[in-house]
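chain below, 193 aa
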Amino acid sequence: MIGDGRTDQFQWMVSEQDGYFTTAQAAHSGYSAMAIATRVDDGVWDRVESDLLRIGGWPHNELEEYAKWCAWLGTGAVISHQSATELHCLGNLHPQFVHVRVSGTARAHDRRLAVHRGRLDGRDIEYTGSFRITTPICTTLDLAAGGISQFTLDEVVGDGLVLGRLDADELFARALESGARVAERIELALSSR
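prediction:
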């Protein structure tokens, strides 16, 4: 390990990613392939996926699956769409995959993932402590732009309003920025309340 401050940065990054990190992140922090292999062999680090590791003995939690995929897909990965809806307790979508929004060319490495492409700005992202997630408004707009039924969208919007996670005026204003189809679907969902 090179003693130029990268150790502290690496430890901070790993703690921010719920104990997960990629082999590339470890190498960037100064760990050689041999040092990585030794730490895995000694149980200091656990191999989770082919190029994804986790600190050995890191405590498990209910949300670690989301942190895992965000760490694997890189710093631009954000939990989105149906998975974000579930985490925000909006509707009853019960997604079959972990939905992640990425900017750039990150590829779905696994059939357990649904990777969506597109950039987000700061107003569309919340930070949970171990991963990023789209805000309730951004999540709702993503669903309105996608293929979910109007009935399901109505349920998501209704739950968001009741829970105070969505503001009707702000949601509609943002929907107008997202195109005619999204605005029409959001208007329908709001009028059903």
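The beta strands are 20-22, 45-49, 52-55, 78-79, 98-102, 113-117, 125-127, 132-134. Residues 6-55 form one domain.
thats it, cya
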